[in-house]
Amino acid sequence: MPPPNVFPSFKSDEAKERYIAAYDALLRDWPVPYQELNLATRLGPTYVIASGPADAPPLVLLPSFAGSATIWRLNVARLSRHYRIYAVDVIGQPGKSLTNRRLRNRHEYANWLVDLLDALDVQRASIVGCSFGGFLALNQASLTPERVDRVVLINPVGTFASQFWKLFYSARIKRPIVKLGRRLVGSKKIPSLADLGIRPPRDAKWSALMATMMSSVSKLSIITPSVLSGRELRSIRTPALLLIGDAEKLYDPVAMLTLAQKRMPTLKGGIVPDADHIAAMAQPDDVNERIIRFLQSDDDAMDVVSQ
Description:
Blueprint: E1 9-10, H1 13-27, E2 34-39, E3 46-51, E4 58-62, H2 76-79, E5 84-88, H3 106-119, E6 125-130, H4 132-143, E7 148-154, H5 164-184, H6 204-216, E8 217-219, H7 230-235, E9 240-245, H8 253-263, E10 268-272, H9 279-282, H10 284-296
Parallel strand pairs: 4-5, 4-6, 6-7, 7-9, 9-10
Antiparallel strand pairs: 1-8, 2-3, 3-5
């Protein structure tokens, strides 16, 4: 009997070794002391980079799709002064977490994160999520509110409105056309985020990891991020902050912020200047301060985070 699928899967053993080597090279430049944790969950072992004082309030960081925990490298030094940081490799995506089956729905992600909090011995935590991680953060606040203090959503996908066709075009049409064109002209240029219309990240070493990922990974396990219903959004009582980079390409930043606050009236929000889809990397100092102000603000004074 053939062995079960494992996600993420790599094109070869050599491709996996290249990816892990690029990941570990990034970790060697992690700006603060850290621990590497491999924690058991119902979906498989989950890899976490833990930083900051062990007795500080817990803060879970969830990356963009395929970004891995290393996407937060430019943020952890500032955030870990105040929090015990848990930067997570999302199960089924590129990184060091592993699962042996495909995820089916957002409820499975919520159960997985509950398992992760239990393994960390954390009863409640605040969650910061970027892109797909932003969707997961608000999903958690909706489905398991007793485990979530506050959430920060940075350029989330799905959640408030669908970007299915734009995501489909980028992943299934634009990228294959670019790859075909390169083969036809004999180009040996390494795949990059620019193929998907994303400008080069501020963190060049993370960009190199992503380029290695794009040429090494063959299969992932992921769901399409849902659009939460108006009833569900209105029922969320967890304080939430939405931050959108002004150079976001998946949707109009101001229009999305307006729509999100209309659909979820308790939501706080703001636009991050000179920042694209990965706003926390594009403008780490600005985003760090907004996160800290929001997490530390009183409920009656949370409007300051949108300034």
